[in-house]
Amino acid sequence: MTETKVPRRTTARLEEQLCFAVYQAGHAFTRMYRSALAELGLTYPQYLVMLALWDGDGVTVKALGERLSLDSGTLTPLLKRLEVAGLIRRERSREDERQVLLHLTEAGEALREKGGCVPITMGRAIGDAVHPDGRLLGDLKRLRDALLKAADQD
Amino acid sequence: MTETKVPRRTTARLEEQLCFAVYQAGHAFTRMYRSALAELGLTYPQYLVMLALWDGDGVTVKALGERLSLDSGTLTPLLKRLEVAGLIRRERSREDERQVLLHLTEAGEALREKGGCVPITMGRAIGDAVHPDGRLLGDLKRLRDALLKAADQD
DNA sequence: GACAATTCAATTGTGCACGATCTAAATCAC
DNA sequence: GTGATTTAGATCGTGCACAATTGAATTGTC
After folding, report:
1. Span CA (B22) to C1' (D25), Å
2. Contact predicate A113/A102, CB 8 Å
3. What are the pLDDT digits (tens) for A120-149?
4. Does strand C come within 7 Å of the CB of A74?
5. Domain B17-119 has CATH 3.60.15.10
6. Does the ipTM exceed 0.85?
């Protein structure tokens, strides 16, 4: 008997997997943001950190890390780069010398105005590809929570 | 006059941004896959490459890169690691010496069976957080395409 | 055939992302 | 109070991700 040409479909096609769709959408966002953020001198993760700090500074590295789900191994060097860029200050807390408090500088605060136009650029890029009803947002949050819950269990 | 405590809402809240939701879901997937793939000895991007090759090997680095939207700077070292692990072979094409063809080894082919259980693990993790109707998948594809189209234009 | 332009992969440098480990500070137990 | 435990960040090593450059092979043009 000759071998059949029909592929053994033991694994789903790459393009039909949810994980791959999320992976690709994430890359597409990163790429889109890269050009939009270039003139601010920020990378995409740095922009997320600034967004968090514009929402309220004086937070600890740990609190920031929990909000972004990033650990100190990622944040410490990133925050140092933001400090070198003159956008934030990092100073040890007086009450608890273990923690480092993050504060916006004048320049960091000022960048908020310029950064405001970025989501608008994004909105135009997305156009009408996404319903503005937040359905996709809700779906993604549910997905994330389910994955994290499962990861905790084992 | 004292300064008001009302935050100037010039930027949307981090948690309500689509880009952040995609970013977080992507991380959650990566984390979930990390543990599921540990026993296969693969990282998540390596698993995606294997998925693509299980779907048909003998492809060029360029073709693989287009499918995954990754460039040679990312793929070359990753593929070398897969080669060292004994899962693939990389050989220059006879007809066109510029291109490198990727082939599965016996071990790489065999790994397909073990890899088959990974999406099942994932499906269980996701549970009923995502409708199985592919709505989310479709939404993400549309989002990705819109972002890529916009990135091309400028 | 000679030479310019293009194409493919590899390389280099920067920056995330995370596990593992380390140090210092704070907290707990007694 | 002394010692054990816990906590917050920093550091190190590995592995993606991508821009930019390089070098070799191919293709196109004359």
Report:
1. 41
2. no
3. 888 988 988 888 888 999 999 999 999 988
4. yes
5. no
6. yes
